[in-house]
Amino acid sequence: MNILLVGSGGREHALAWKIAQSPLVTRLVAAPGNPGMAKHAELKPEIKATDAESLAALAREMKADLVVVGPESALAEGLADRLNAAGIPCFGPTAKAAQLETSKAFSKAFLQRHGIPTAGYGVYEDVAEAKAALNHYAAPYVIKADGLAAGKGVAISPDKQDAEAEIERMLGGRFGSAGSRVVIEEFMDGEEGSLFALCDGQRAVLFGGAQDHKRAFDGDLGPNTGGMGAYSPAPVFTPELVQAANDQIVQPTIARMAEEGAPYRGVLYAGLMATSEGPKVVEFNARFGDPECQVLMMRFDGDIVPLLLACARGDLTKAPAPRFKDGVVITVVLAAKGYPDSPLEGSVIRGADQDFGPHVQVFHAGTRKRDDGALVAAGGRVLNVCAYGADIAEARTRAYEAVAKIDWPGGFHRSDIGWRALEPR
């Protein structure tokens, strides 16, 4: 098979690493790719993930048997629609189906329309109207930019003054057109986790769970980020909670999307809150999470390609059931100083590509090679250090031992990834 993988981050590096292991693969091309992915795929750095037209042309040129879309930006640009029109199987939903992620207002209305459990909410475009609406909610206040904001468009404000300031920032252009509308939600009390499902338009098969760490600093302090680390499996996902989430959220979502003329193919990421009333939807993503994808790919036991292809072709019935290794995988994100607001680019990283042993993988997330061959930071989240262990403690020890071997004064990381899993329950 000839496979085109779209994207350039840690999620895509993990997918490239896993896809390249398949005996079905003859050629793997990554567009644009990153330096770490060069071990597994041909890179096309000149083609951006948002250039749907060029990506579709590349897929036709290389006679792709499958296109795997990593980032949400490509989905929003309608890449799947173009590929479907060309008869090329695409692992990733159409722009219409991807609205489950690309518009929080669409997603919330969909959930409400079909009685799928989530928090109460309102959608606002006017600053004064949004501020007045705060009177209908209790602190802490949850305020979200409607569109795509690279995982940073969510604010949890402790008081009304802070909430009003967030409303002014978002509607004032902090996230560009993504913040032209804001969603204000009821705060949900509980523990959050990410549940994944592979979908073929009519059916959904669960594909593991993970827990992310959104805040920038230890102790869940600092601004929201795209994710500073994750681990899988997550203890919050008890068998009872997973069953309830599948029955009340995942399966109804796939069925109702098909009924509404937007069959969903690809991976559905359900960000869930485990509340006293059962699981409720925090948000949907239309792609593998980042950094959750990294831990899922390391835990997955088997060939990922037949599952991706079955989703893209619209028939999971003949695909093998997903299998996962026993044990735990954890990833620690190394980010550039200044992230998420103003990450410093260009600092030299040494030791990222050394052999860390059989239980550790380092995925590149935001790197580039200088003309002299030096590896440098080229983004906010730069490296993902992933480690497998028999339990969370062993995985965590291996991950942080590997982190200590990487020489990068220009970066920082959290030192408490996995803390919830280590607490007695």
Distance between the termini: 46 Å
Shape: globular
Question: What is the CA-atom radius of gyration, in angstroms?
Answer: 20 Å
Number of strands: 23
Count, helices:
13
Largest sheet: 9 strands, antiparallel
**Mean pLDDT over the full residue set:** 94
Computed structural class: alpha+beta
Oligomer: single chain
Low-confidence stretches: none
Please describe the topology of this protein.
Blueprint: E1 2-7, H1 10-19, E2 27-32, E3 42-43, H2 52-61, E4 66-69, H3 72-76, H4 79-85, E5 90-91, H5 99-102, H6 104-113, E6 121-124, H7 127-133, E7 141-145, E8 154-157, H8 160-174, E9 182-185, E10 191-200, E11 204-212, E12 215-217, E13 221-224, E14 229-232, H9 239-259, E15 265-275, E16 278-285, H10 292-299, H11 305-313, E17 328-336, E18 348-349, E19 360-364, E20 367-369, E21 375-377, E22 381-389, H12 392-404, E23 411-412, H13 419-422
Parallel strand pairs: 1-2, 1-4, 2-3, 4-5
Antiparallel strand pairs: 6-9, 7-8, 7-9, 10-11, 10-15, 11-14, 12-13, 14-17, 15-16, 17-22, 17-23, 18-21, 19-22, 20-21
Helix pairs in contact: 1-10
